[in-house]
Design brief:
heterodimer; A: 2 helices; 84% helix; B: mainly alpha; globular
Amino acid sequence: MKEFWKYAFAVLAYIGVSFLTKNFLTWTSGPLFFILVLEVIPRTFRRLRTYRSDGAEA
Amino acid sequence: MSWAAHEFEDYFIQKHVGTKASFVAVCLGALLPDLFTKAFVYNHKGNVAHFHRGWPGVGPTHSLIFGFVLAVLILGITKSRSWALGILIGQWAHVFTDISDTAGVMPFFPFSTQNISISMWKHAAFEGRFGDAAAYYSGLGGVWDFFWFVVVILFARNTLRADYFWQVVVPADLKVWSWFRRRLYLSDNGLLVLYRAYFLYGAGRMVSWFLYARFDVKAPWQPVWGGPNYIKGTHLMTQSWQHILISTSVGGVLFCVFLYLCWVTFIKRLWRRGADPEIVERGSGLRVAFH
């Protein structure tokens, strides 16, 4: 269920970005947007968190 | 043309081909006709619909022979049966879907240059990308997209599951998914997102363009056959029904004879020389491609 809401959020973000900026993404940038929102950004935050907690322990 | 149906159809096709065709190839095949033409179409000065779907023009990209030639080339060069079938099925699905607008397609080019259309919604590419989208989501085009969204949710939702992806989609095309993992530095989750991305993209695209048509352009919503009525649209199937029937029948028969001759002269040899991933078990007849 948690995964469903993550995907729903990504689709809403896509709709918001497309509609508000009038920059409707194409068949290449569209799927890449979802990679960015559902993989790259969460992974970066995870790494940052790990880095911070490692630093605090040191 | 369809704006999101092509994305949804890929998952419905995936349900029926299982491991027998590459999902990536199906997606690419469904994209190819517009990939080669859209940029030129929106910048074309003149009869845009005729340029897009007719001859002379780039109409042959929306004919069955285009997918056939590409599939044979891929089979000959890569020896991959899954990719050849994927490209063929994806491109043919695109051709059959585009029959629905008023411009239609020339399915049996070059044996017939007759356009076939059921005129469900207006081809409005002459309005440019934004005007075209507004017209599409003001007629039955948008309904057609939503129909395919519902079809996937009702009948092919299993294809969106993670275990389906790992047990069917990846083993059917291991090389390509491994390549994605290496080149794009994707984790397991990233690969799964990439697989689902076209469905998400289709859903997002359908809603955002619909909102654009309603609240930005404020185009009237007219989901009637041949709509929307606020725009003129372009019709390419203007000949008498007798002419259309004869021309299409002759073209269809010649196209089938051509396919058969190609099969017996060289494609059968290429097919036998081709290879499949270990997981694939092909039957005979339609079970070569569908399970």
